[in-house]
Amino acid sequence: MVKSHITYQGGLHCSAQHEPSKAVIETDAPVDNNGKGEAFSPTDLVGAALAACMSTIMGMVTERKGIDLTGMTVDVAKHMNADPRRIGKLEIVITVPLPEDTPYKSMLEQAALNCPVKKSLHPDVEIPITWIWGK
């Protein structure tokens, strides 16, 4: 179990501290929902968590095989639905610095698809993934 401590700072800003590391992140409400957009919104963090989780799980798989994924990028575009207000779609673009014909392609794609954050999201959230190999 890992704990975090969130403090509402007023003005739609929060501070979240990760208990084990003491690392802190700030959040703000998005501009389209009465905020100033001065930091990640809570729903932005969901998209960022998905991208980081996919990257981490892929990294775990490749490290066991002695493959270096340094430089891999994952971009995420969050789309909100209005009624009810919720995340409707998280578009993912994964750029992998391995050739498209790598024998690890299927294994890496499956690792990303089975990351814990993706498995935790509601099935109504669309998650289209575009793969770019060899960059």
UniProtKB/TrEMBL annotation:
Domain of life: Bacteria
Entries under Gene3D superfamilies matching the protein: 3.30.300.20
Bilayer-crossing regions: none
InterPro entries: KH_dom-like_a/b (IPR015946), OsmC/Ohr_fam (IPR003718), OsmC/Ohrsf (IPR036102)
Name of a matching Pfam family: OsmC
Record protein name field: Osmc/ohr family
Organism: Akkermansia glycaniphila
Biological classification of the source: Bacteria, Pseudomonadati, Verrucomicrobiota, Verrucomicrobiia, Verrucomicrobiales
